[in-house]
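W.,

You were right to be curious about this one. When I first looked at the sequence I had no strong expectations either way, so I just let the prediction run and decided to look at it fresh. Below is the sequence, 229 residues in total, followed by the output.
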Amino acid sequence: MVKVAVIEDDQPTSQQLCGWIAAARPGIQIDTWFTRDDAEAALARERYDLVVLDIELGRERNAGVAIINAINKRHAGTPVLVVSAMPAAIYRSIMKALDAWDYLQKTTFDEADFVETFLDILRATKDKAPPAPVAAPREELLLDPLRQGAAIWRGQRVNLPLTAQRILSALYQRRGEVVSYEDLYQVVKSGRNRDNIRKHVSTIRDAFRDIDPTFDGIANVPMRGFRWE
């Protein structure tokens, strides 16, 4: 069972986030913590698949920073989604330096934005299946970014809209490297923001999984962008 911790001192906000998570992924285990001490004690006992975290808890303005440091020390790699009223222009770079996966500023996002981000992180960090005894060749993708729907994966056509096709091409041309959000903005004509890029990448993943359920060739790089592996 997927286990998620919601660390938020405002109970109405905590209940709202838990409700969104439960609706998006029925059956998920959600633990709620309201103080730094309780959260750190819980994190010392068990490992969560994802932590949703506020920065300011009670009178501790940067309690969330301490909790992220504790997570990195005990359970390196656990994804953290920061949801805070602190200005994103200042704190996004701080959270990036701490290896948080993403940052949402309160009052600037709605349920759809939160759920999209939450599910994208879960998909990107799910346990990978053991490798097959014989590795598939890496040069198994053929595409023409100028022709809509022209991507071919392992001999089968991948149905993609043109913008998703261009993003796929940008990732594949630089496979093994991180392609930043800013770089990906250059290949879209409108919607040049992180949420829109994430939606296009989600569309690409879904299209590949329609023909190859084991596909996991696009990695989400926290706060930076994506990488074709």
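Here's what jumped out at me. The chain is about 40% helix and 20% strand. And, maybe more interesting for your project: Residues 127-138 have pLDDT under 50 and may be disordered.

Coffee later to discuss?

I.
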